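worker-03 picked up job from queue 'complexes'. Input manifest follows; two sequence lines, order preserved.
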Amino acid sequence: MCGTCGCSSSEDTGVNGHEHRLVVLEQKVLARNDHLAEHNRTWLTERDIVAVNLMSSPGSGKTTLLERTIRELGGAVSVVEGDQETEFDAERIRATGAPVVQVNTGAGCHLDADMLARALRTLDPAPGSLVFVENVGNLVCPALFDLGERCRAVVMSVTEGADKPLKYPHMFRTANVVVLNKTDLLPYVDFDAARFADSLNQVNPEVRVIEVSATRGDGVPNWYGWLRQVSQERGVPR
Amino acid sequence: MHELSVAQAVVDEIVTKLGSQVVTTVRLAVGKQSGVVVDSVRFCFDLVTEDTSLAGAELVVDEPPGRDLRIVSVEVIRECAVPADAPAPKTRA
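worker-03 finished. Artifact:
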């Protein structure tokens, strides 16, 4: 029904001088975000900067992995931290000596391309450097929003359960690499590795899995190797 | 709750395209694998359209297979030029 004239027809009736007109748009809902993301991608590529979108559920160890990575990887690394509230994660990154910008999304459950664009202007990362974008801890919403990143790394910890890829297929489908964290806890938790591999295979059969313990350092050289490959090849290795 | 962002993006895209034209119907395609919950979009749509040219508009949602997330079409009121106290227009033959 027409909200203005109250007539019930959607055809051109001429009733009360109102005429309804169908306007075909056929436009992606997130067109504006995708457009801004392409701007970010161009901006980053022109400066030979590699941006990695780091996504996971809260508490999977993203920030711990970043702290170790910044200390051990070498080279220019900076970070955009996304959280609903607080500067806690930015303070942890700042303690490593890396430049960091904290984005607080308030009610928002994800970072979008506009937020990253503004954060990058403040961060002003060096040409040829590596930028980590630590997204808001959430396995649902961030999957939908392109930021203009080179690649997406999804961190999952063994305490979360092996079925997560099937429960959150959108997130795991978009991952270029899956980092399985907290492997030092494997002796103490009931994590079914075969079920995890099968779950992941169903949603993203090509994706590489890198097992690490961010707190102890097990497996992190493989993560660094993957990051170096991303930086050097200008592509996304599998 | 990314459906709030989705609903807001729908409003922003339509207002950008159509300016202040009064919108009476919005038709969306929300794919079953899009990761977007239709009921949540409906809830948010009513909130974000308040005080916009889409206020009170009907939201029609198609749910095709796949990951489509698209504004298909809108219906707008072409003419609102007739004052309220004007005589009723003649019925067309």
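worker-03 released lock.
The first strand of chain B starts at residue 23 and ends at 30.
Chain B touches chain A at residues 1-2, 4-6, 9-10, 12-14, 16-18, 22, 24-25, 28, 33, 35-36, 55-58, 69-82, 86, 88-89, 92 (CB under 8 Å).
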